[in-house]
Structure formats: structure tokens, C-alpha cells
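Weekly modeling sync, notes
Attendees: S.R. (lead), two postdocs, one rotation student

Agenda item 3: backlog of single-chain predictions. S.R. asked that every request posted to the team notebook include the full sequence so nobody has to chase files. The rotation student volunteered to paste the first one in as an example of the format we agreed on. Action items at the bottom.

Example entry:
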Amino acid sequence: MSIQVDPIQKVQATDSVQYPQTVTASGSLLRVHSVQNGHRIDEERLTIDAPRAEFETPAKWTITIDNGDDAPLKVESVRLQMLERDLCLDAAGSGDYKLYYGDGALAAPRYDYATLFAPQADAAKAALGSEQANAAFEARPDERPFTEKHPALLWAALVLVIALLGAIALGSVKRTVQNQP
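Predicted structure, as returned to the notebook:
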């Protein structure tokens, strides 16, 4: 079964209504409780990651369920949920802090802070401002090997070598046939 989620932002009615770009996400839900060959199988995956969207403005979400040729599902409810995450740090005075995220090439950091952290009842709380693009962002250089950057070149070289070996083999066969009495 696959589910498609399309957030469609509400737009004020004007003379020329422009609808925002549709963002689509899909995933598979799974609930299996059975016994096969004497082994009990219990597996559930009942969540799908929602597409990145602006959650501060009202939105209409359209959910499409493709259950294949199975019996229709009796969907009683759907909930859009988001986990709240806390970021704790020792702030040095009152200043501006920036949170950078999104580099998939980096591993999660491991700090001693996580093991030494003790929540304080009087801890200062702050809220994140609106998300902004990093103007100083530079993409990482492509560090893949040459053959992975240019796979067509590798295939072309392989075809050339095969053709060259075929020509040498064909020439050798012709010479052998010509030299036979």
C-alpha cells in the first residue's frame, strides 16, 4: 500500500489566483501480524515523513491511498504530527546564535554535553526565528572517483577495447586462413 500526501496551501482569493507549487511525498504503510512456517511475524510501519512545508500558515492536506487490488481500507482518522525537539547549549552571554543544518555528508556529532547535561528549572528559553538560506553556503566539492563522475567514459573505453580486441582477433583469423596451404 502506498500513500501520497499533497500539502496545498490556502490562498487568498484575488483576481489572479496563483496556487503554490504542489509538494508530493509518498511512502508505504505496513501492518503485518501473522504466523508463517511456525514463526510469528509482527511488523508495523505506520508513519510517513511529511514533505517540508511551511507549518505556520494554514494548509489543506490531501491524502491519497493506493491500496492496489486489496480490499478498501476503513480509515478512521489521520493525524499530522511533528516531534518537538529541544536544543540545549551553554549560552555565552546574550548574543545572536545561528543554527546550521542539512549537511548529509556529516555524521552526527558526539559531545560530552549530552552525558553531562542536567536540566535547569530556570533555564532561559529562546525561539528560532524564521528559516533563512545561508548566503555564504558553498556546496561541497564532488569527491567521487573519476570513473563515478564520468561513467559514460568508462563504458566508451570498454567498448573501444572490445572492438580493438575483436579487430585483432579477426585479423589473426584472416592471416591464419591465408597462410594455410
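Discussion: group reviewed the output briefly. The beta strands are 2-9, 25-28, 30-36, 39-45, 59-66.
Action items: rotation student to repeat for the remaining queue; S.R. to check formatting next week.
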